[in-house]
Write a structure and sequence with these properties.
Elements: H1 2-16, E1 21-24, H2 29-34, H3 37-48, E2 53-58, H4 63-76, E3 80-85, H5 91-104, E4 112-120, H6 127-134, E5 143-149, E6 162-167, H7 169-181, E7 187-191, E8 214-217, E9 221-226, H8 240-244, H9 246-255, H10 267-276, H11 285-325
Helix pairs in contact: 1-3, 3-4, 6-7, 9-10, 10-11
Length: 327
Amino acid sequence: MLNSVETAVIEITRYWGNAPVYIGTHELAYYIDQSPELLDRIFFTASELSLTVIPVINLDARAATKERLLSIAKIYGFKICIQARLGSHPIEGLASELDVLLSTYNIEREMCDLIVDAQIISDDSDVFRVVANELPNLNEWNRVIFSGGAFPLDLTKLIIPRNYYLPRYDWLAWKGMVLLTQQENPLLFSDYTTQHPIYREFDPGVIPNPSASIRYTADEYWLVIRGRALRPHRNEKATSKERYLQYPAEASLLIDLKEYCGPDFSPGDQYILDIAAGNGHTGSPESWLKAGFSHHIAYTVHQVLALQSALVESREEVEAYIHGSSH
């Protein structure tokens, strides 16, 4: 585990450069309990590589882990971030829980980021707006990030073969909150891309049989082009090679749809065009997930920037009107 974690930090440095990166260790709690030095090695490696790290302290973490992360941040001069997962912390008591944590460890809001993670957002929810109204000091934090995910656990409930349009409830919840609250300190957005927000470890005794499906982000929904399983069942005549040929066919379908953003939009979009053009390979579940992540991140960044720009222009117009009408 130690070597794999250090390798992951090196990979982050390779692809992320010097941009700030949040490193959360809550999912490693079991391994940290077994090997307490794991925390130190993660952040020592990051420091040695000059990676701009922000350790994430989960509200659910054990006191010893919180104290060690704060100590590590002090040693290496890292900023810190607190993460509150709404699944285990009622919204009504969140403000007081954060106050207790800040007071206990003498943390100032101005020097700390806050992640409010709703995790699963399964309907047209206003959860982010409710949280924003419950937390009275949002403008005092260094950054406030609202996070959540709405992509299903898997695609097994989607009939084969068809196109599906799955609502991006996470994006809609954040967008609605931002438009209504109009905070001075921008409330940032984070999601789980085209993945389910709850990490699930597969049974090592079960060989997975993923489908040849494409997940593609659009304005307020995900387009899912649902394909068949890549490994045929015993009584089926198709071969695995034939099943992989679904990918080029689906890519050809996608590039002709209004949702497709063109090859210059992201590396993932270029990948889609390459496969559709029949360049000799079909891709794999892993490569198609990567293409979907690439497109999703580019698309969501465009959306966030466009909305924030519109809000700034709106405020300027209101202020100009107020000043103009006062003369």
